[in-house]
């Protein structure tokens, strides 16, 4: 099954593979010829003293080895290149496929395991493909030709010598199983190691701040140790394989000497024939050993291939619609109808959400942490699909909109400020590849980021470090805002987009945002209520339900969660008694 599937990846490179097969045949032929030449060396040169052959044979042997060398080179080279080409295809396909998978897929798996799949597992596959191709082509042929020679020299002796051969199968199989088992364990540990590394590099600050170095070192050392102990068992198996095979070889040779010697003494076989036979027999064990060892290699690679195919077979949960519907522009309505949503099958995170946002409207979402605000806007961007109900843009269900168009319709400034380790220019052009230098600067100005960017050593061409590590939290946030501004999409989602800014910067950025919201449909999530007082609708989310809705004034008049929330925040920043004395400040 796995083998057949792997074969399908090899098939496109069949031309190169044929070259390899051709040269593999020649290599096998030279091996058999070498064994055959033992007979004239003994019978004609040593025994019959043929002086002409004494000159010719060594020349022939040199030629034979030159041919063999060249053929081996071409065969190995081509077959290894095929292996590389195959894994290149698989790796590209895997990467492409993983990008199509939903957020959920990545949340459920560790980064380390995914990295190990994309790098280690594929590399194991490559090793096995190359080895399999070499071994299967060359060694099988060598075995066949040498066997032919052996039977040609003396079939009785051949049968006898091979009585012991099948017996090697059992120990070799047992050893192979062991190798396979421990290789699998070792691979899992490699995944753990890469996970630890990944967490260490991305969490280095926390490690240092909490003084976790000793724990991390211990953990790493233990995982590494476990990897070692599994690998050692696999190595043990691997090292036992060849002596086991050799032991049986010894039996074969002993029997051959005994019975072959008898035949020579009786005169039914020449000395040359016997030695040619023994040479062929000796040469035979190596390719057979290779073929047997291949079993273990293939087992390991099938394991790796299964893990890779497993990812490739994961259906993207958020599927591209069969026939995408083009949303007519401009956007005049974004609506949620009876939306229910659960991350896992059991607990509803959103319940019966209904809302309608028109053009030029700002919908603000407020509520306690964990209330479902981020989840609600994630559904609009279709990071997840609703469990029940529907979300429509201009009446078209988001599930019917092609992914490319949907991503063009929505600008998302996330709670997490995720930036690439590239220049600021590159990061801003994510939203719009054709943005000009002027567009970039004007976006930076709107996001109140122009001053600090122009003070950077290389301006907008400054590379900002992994995850934007060389910028302050507020600077990162402003870059993210500028990125959304450059993108200029008709639906704008701001998930605490100004939370990392000081009051003064926030006021400045807020002004730019107010301009940006013109002619758009905007969803704003803000913990600081002062930034959303002008919203057309404010929705208060509590435990996944909309518990209050209205304008700022309406909600203040209504004695509910919002008013308490507002009073509480206001009392922290202001001390005016009249605001706090709304009578409901017990929260
Ligand atoms: N990827 C996820 N998988 C499972 N549950 C999740 C996931 N993300 C969020 N949740 C859960 O969904 C609920 C709502 O989370 P959400 O992030 O939408 O809250 P929020 O209102 O944005 O909170 P905050 O104000 O803290 O950002 C929480 O109870 C959270 O535990
Ligand atoms: Mg949130």
From TrEMBL:
GO molecular function: ABC-type oligopeptide transporter activity; ATP binding; ATP hydrolysis activity
Superkingdom, taxonomy of origin: Bacteria
GO CC annotations on file: plasma membrane
Chief location of this protein within or outside the cell: membrane
One Pfam family in the UniProt entry: ABC_membrane
Domain ABC transmembrane type-1: 19-300
Membrane-protein topology: Multi-pass membrane protein
Subcellular location, record wording: Cell membrane
SUPFAM superfamilies, sorted: ABC transporter transmembrane region, P-loop containing nucleoside triphosphate hydrolases
EC number: 3.6.3.-
Membrane-spanning segments: 56-74, 128-151, 157-175, 240-259
Record carries keyword Transmembrane: yes
PANTHER family: ATP-BINDING CASSETTE SUB-FAMILY B MEMBER 10, MITOCHONDRIAL, ATP-DEPENDENT PERMEASE MDL1, MITOCHONDRIAL
The name this protein goes by in its record: Subfamily B ATP-binding cassette protein MsbA
Provenance organism: Desulfurispira natronophila
